[in-house]
Design a protein that fits this description.
By secondary structure, chain A is mostly helical. Chain A has twelve helices and no strands. The longest helix of chain A is centred in the first third of the chain and has 37 residues. Chain B contains 14 helices and no strands. In chain B, α7 packs across α9, α11 packs antiparallel against α14 and α13 runs antiparallel to α14. The chains are: A mainly alpha, B mainly alpha.
Chain lengths: 258, 323
């Protein structure tokens, strides 16, 4: 897990340090150097407005990583809450919440988010919430499954008998058992969040220009594939450089679990 | 499972009944998403200075948007169930007609891609599990992790850049060259989008099959099969594979259902004229009747395919109860 974690931390550090790392401002337009191929001064080239692609990739990293991490946090928190309530309450509440989970899983995620983004025109923080809200189902399912498996165990009853409230039993006694399963599902949600943001922005409904995100840089690049192919390389490569380590960390977490 | 006509009918009937509340929830979510938004479905016209307020008011009444939300919901749902999916906002044609004309292209692309993905998945997943830790396993692991982490649209752009723009071997988009619809031309158009879909799908599936094969291969009945002197080939392909296949079937059918209603990303990147492209076109024009119909179609396909998947699972695994 060390190398993937190292790469991921390095990317976060680079994103945080973007103003220092990036040689130019991300939105600095210089029409005298439009559409230049990669060179020593502009390692990833420049775009149709003469903006430095490397600088934009660095600032875009902030958006992509923030959306990935925070949307996974939203998905994880709501998934734990919904799965926890369903698993602990059982009965009708459980049945209703699980039908809702099934229904959400039956709607294709990206198209649903694309419509939501068009209808609601979200700012970046709201985009994070939307992507998170579209991703709680997997976490809810694993939390519920863990709790159902523990439901009949004596320690729940003894905690209740000792006077612990339902909330306390759920939070202190039951949920810690699901921690590892939750960690795996949240890690996967980080990678998914990054991919979803990039796809939404690629379709022009996610992060809107002039702010840079890896997805909307690829949206611009699509129109110039034959003349400025370098525009399409760097943003996509950075998406992959982020999602591969995250997937690997998720795999490793899932394996230590078994 | 003992397959008698009665158990079969019962199984299908019960699962279809369970699907009804599920689809009701889906329809409510889809409806609310579009109608509860500020401005509702006509929001796009509000921002347009060329559309007069009185025209918007007229449209609102004509579309029934002045009625209470629940009333709109029921009349939409009832019409939808009867097959009346309304008219496209953008060109005034019936939504059903717009969808039907796109179905063949999607079925062709998705059908070919699913077949290719399965053809990649089976050998890769099985061999990786059998040769665990050896070079074949390592290479396929790297490939599948990359495939899972890959943004499909970027992969599509790369293939276009290499094979269409750079080498000029293949067309970059569309389903056929106008006026030149022979088989070779058709296959050339099919190749790149199929490659994207098949590779992305096979990455996830083969990883899954590998895991489920590894789990099965460590079970006692495999040891006993080997002890009875069965050939390794028979142990792996008959005993282990049949047991490991159940969970994969569920995954494959859900993915297939999601694709049947349009491979949105791939079709859009390659301008493949199927349901996925229809979705992005409708999205660009805020054509909500088409969008709602497509989402409902996807969800219904997922629910229906899930029933098929459970049934198939019960067929290959006698331990799975039918009731």
């Amino acid at each position: 897990m060390r190398l993937p974690a190292l790469v991921f931390v390095a990317l976060i550090a680079a994103a945080l340090a973007a103003p220092v790392v990036a040689p130019y401002g991300p939105e600095r337009i210089d029409l005298s150097i439009r559409r230049e191929a990669p060179s020593a001064a502009h390692v990833f080239g420049t775009d149709e407005l003469g903006r430095d692609v490397f600088s934009r990739v660095m600032f875009g990293a902030r958006v992509s990583l923030a959306v990935g991490l925070f949307s996974a946090a939203v998905a994880g928190a709501s998934g734990v809450a919904i799965g926890g309530i369903a698993g602990y309450a059982g009965g009708g509440v459980d049945a209703a919440l699980m039908r809702l989970t099934d229904a959400m899983l039956a709607i294709p995620r990206l198209p649903l988010l694309m419509i939501a983004a068009v209808v609601l025109q979200p700012s970046i923080p709201w985009l994070i919430v939307l992507i998170g809200v579209a991703g709680w189902m997997e976490t809810a399912r694993v939390v519920r499954a863990e709790l159902r498996a523990l439901g009949g165990k004596g320690f729940v009853e003894s905690a209740r008998a000792a006077g612990a409230s339902h909330a306390r039993v759920l939070v202190r006694h039951l949920l810690p058992n699901a921690a590892q399963a939750v960690a795996v599902s949240i890690t996967l949600a980080v990678a998914r969040g990054i991919l979803l943001e990039s796809a939404l922005s690629f379709f022009g409904v996610g992060v809107h220009p002039p702010a840079a995100s890896w997805g909307n840089m690829l949206y611009q690049a699509q129109a110039a594939l034959s003349t400025e192919p370098w525009l399409a390389i760097a943003p996509g490569a950075f998406i992959l450089m982020t999602t591969i380590p995250v997937s690997l960390i998720g795999e490793r977490l899932a394996r230590t679990r078994n | 499972m003992h397959l008698t006509p009665t158990t079969l009918t019962r199984f299908v009937a019960r699962r279809c009944l369970q699907a009804v509340p599920l689809l009701l929830v889906v329809s409510t979510l889809v409806f609310l998403l579009i109608h509860a938004a500020p401005g509702g479905p006509l929001a796009i016209y509000l921002a347009n200075p060329n559309v007069r307020p009185e025209d918007i008011e007229r449209l609102r009444r004509a579309l029934g948007l002045d009625r209470p939300l629940w009333e709109q919901y029921w009349s939409w749902l009832w019409a939808f169930v009867r097959g009346d999916w309304g008219y496209s906002f953008s060109d005034g044609r019936p939504v059903v007609a717009r969808i039907v004309e796109r179905v063949p292209a999607t079925l062709e692309l998705v059908g070919v891609s699913l077949a290719c993905a399965l053809a990649l998945t089976m050998p890769a997943g099985i061999l990786a599990a059998v040769r665990r830790g050896r070079w074949f396993d390592r290479v396929t692991t790297i490939a599948s992790i990359t495939g899972i982490s890959l943004p499909a649209f970027w992969f599509g752009l790369l293939l276009q850049m290499i094979f269409a723009v750079g080498l000029g071997w293949l067309p970059s988009s569309g389903r056929a060259t106008p006026g030149e619809g022979d088989v070779v031309d058709h296959l050339q158009h099919l190749l790149l989008p199929t490659a994207v879909l098949a590779i992305v799908l096979a990455s996830g599936w083969s990883r899954y099959l590998r895991g489920s094969m590894l789990e099965t291969l460590s079970l006692p009945f495999i040891v006993s099969a080997r002890a009875r002197g069965l050939t390794e080939r028979r142990v792996v392909l008959r005993h282990a594979l049949l047991n490991a296949l159940g969970p994969l079937i569920a995954l494959v059918t859900v993915d297939a259902a999601l694709l049947v209603s349009g491979a949105v990303v791939t079709e859009s990147v390659f301008a493949w004229p199927g349901l996925g492209s229809l979705f992005t076109e409708a999205l660009a024009r805020r054509d909500y009747t088409v969008l709602m119909a497509l989402l409902m179609l996807s969800a219904s396909a997922v629910v229906a395919f899930n029933i098929v998947a459970d049934f198939a699972h019960a067929l290959v695994d006698p331990r799975v109860p039918v009731s």
